[in-house]
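To: structure desk
From: M.T.
Subject: fold request, one chain
Message: Could you run this one when you get a chance? Sequence is below, nothing fancy, just the single chain.
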Amino acid sequence: MLKFGSTLLALLCLTANALAVEPVFHPVFVPASDGFKSIRIPSVVITPKGTLLAFAEGRLNANSDQAENKIIAKRSTDSGATWSPLALLADDGENSLNNPTAVVDQKTGRVFLMYQRIPAHSKETSKSIATGLEGPTIYRNFIVTTDDDGLHWSTPLDVTRTTKHPTVATTIASGPGIGIQLTRGQYKGRLIIPFNEGPFYKWNNFAVYSDDDGTTWAVGQNAPGNMAGQRSKVNEVQMVELEDGSVMLNSRQYAGAKCRKIAISHDGAVTWSPITDAPALRDPSCMGSILRYTFAEGNQPGTLLYSGPDAGKRINGTVYLSHDDGQTWPIKKTLEPGSFSYSVLVKLPDATIGCLFETNDQIHFGRFPLDWLTAGSK
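Reply: Done. Structure tokens follow.
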């Protein structure tokens, strides 16, 4: 009887362990309870102290990208199981605030959140949107910061003059998603925020960067080879550090093959190789996330992760894994089979993986161990 009980206990433990590796999900932003008609465009980072900070656009209209949007945030101190009440980080009246994109300076612990202000009653396609760095009808770029894990935030700082190309660019959009900080090579410590700029249908990808812990910012060059006829191949973009300290951009496709678009920079995201296809990463034209999970160490290869819809529309949210700096993506697994749009990956202190993603008009946080993704792979 004791032997049977011990065997049963062991089986129960194995069953519990098997269940424990499955993803768990928690709602973060829910329009009905958070006071907005729509909440979209997630960003999430982990601070050096282990606090998760999640950001989004709170929209007053459910059917518009520019709807007097506010920048909102929530905090979690238990790896995403529970979240604080909503905090309003930036409100500019009838002007629309868009594309929250966060990055953490690992040296100082300061968190930077960059976003854009779009003139009231204007859209990306509005002919009234002007180029240049001054005037009432231009897109402007702002930063807010926190030094205490999101408990308090600075007043918005206008950094348009140093972060926007002064000619040609009409719209500008950080990310959306996250920025990165380089950890190796000549540009170690550099903070990088990925960007795209208009005119509409003729977008370019580039980076905004800082080498002095975010005190000042500079703007890099556009990635070449972005056009397919009269329409751009690229749009919303994320970036990731490669093994040698170079940077790869990973962009939403807007023309050409229905897959992600990539380019490489060997000078810290200032200049880029021509845009090319990443055929393994299917893309129905949706923002996606790319994350450095580990660097190579000893006999262990480094790991990149990617998340996005693996379908012809915004469903079947899938997480991919690469061990060769994104040259191939041999491992993938469905995280959310239903509605799945914009997503942002984050590595948690215990090495589990978080994914903040849009689903069914809400933004949820999924958490899973790497073993869930790699189970069954060779």
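Reply (cont.): Residues 1-20 have pLDDT under 50 and may be disordered. Let me know if you need anything else for the meeting.
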